[in-house]
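Please, structure for the following, as tokens.
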Amino acid sequence: MLIALGLTGVTCKNPEAKGVLRKNNRVVMLNNQNLKVPAAISTSQAAADVPAHKILGLLKTCVTRWGNQFLQLNRNTLLRLAIDPAVDKFKKENKNEKEAIVEVDLSDGAGSKAGKAVAAADIGLSKEDWEASQELAGFLEYPYQIKEIIEKGNGTCTGAQALQLLWDLKENHCNPHAQLSVKAFPPSLSVADRARPMETKEADDLCEMVRTARTLMKEELQARLFASRPSNLRLVQCFMSKQPGFNCSNYLAPAQHQLAETLYLQMIRKAVDLMPKGDPAISSAKKIKTEETLAGAGSPLFRGASMLNSAAAAQVAQAAHNAAEAEFQFDAAGVEIERYKYLAPEEVQPFLRADGLLDEFRMIHELR
């Protein structure tokens, strides 16, 4: 993400995005280094009947980590109607000031402790800058949600689901022809207007820095995550995952998918060998109701899931039908493998969270 935003790398690959982030951060630095600006921002909110305990401030960011950039852009665009008059008043009163604020000096690539002085005339955002900030915030929101669910998902996000989320991010959110949903600027500073409606922008209407960020992120995700083979245990996780809308054949290479199935079968057999020995259970394959795989489309996560698995769902349904019709005899491991493979959607549904993430740990525990 830092490479996509032009914040790291041997050379800056997205100077436009880096420039927009710098302008937003300068407003926050002014807010932190001049007492009159935060007071003016608070006064504007109070004038819009915002209760004292709900008055918002601006958020600092850190150039060496990502995630806080989205939070800063989201807060700045929310408080635009308070920021603009506060900054304009400061610039009017200090128009000749050459050292209005001190920001981190990144000219040496590391950030000088001495900092860099910024003139008052170079602080603030134009109408075009605000629109660019709005689009950049819209682009960063889904990657930020994925980061949060992987880091703080209460232990419910498996390694396979993390890979699925990042594949969805690469193939759908970073699709150069995809639309982008952005939050509208609030018409006022009131608390009621903080729930901003979403606006959809066509790919051709997006600013160049967002299109560049999409391309860079897609390249980085492919090179770092999908160009090499996952570990054996991760492959088995991917093969076993019942996340609605996803099949590991979507995001694993054919050879990796075959290896994942082989490793899964081997591990099942090894698990059976560890069980107490007794008479092997013999059973007939039962015809299980199979419907089209549930899709997470419309949920906050797995935004492209509805496009991924319709053909795969049809293949699974046909395979289930064929297996039931054949009435083969399976040993205990074989029966368990077939039952898990053809779990009906209604058996998976109770473990699906509101954000679209399947709680596979709880599902496995209760279906064991």
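Strands lie at 101-105, 112-118, 180-183, 198-201, 283-284, 329-330. The radius of gyration is 26 Å.
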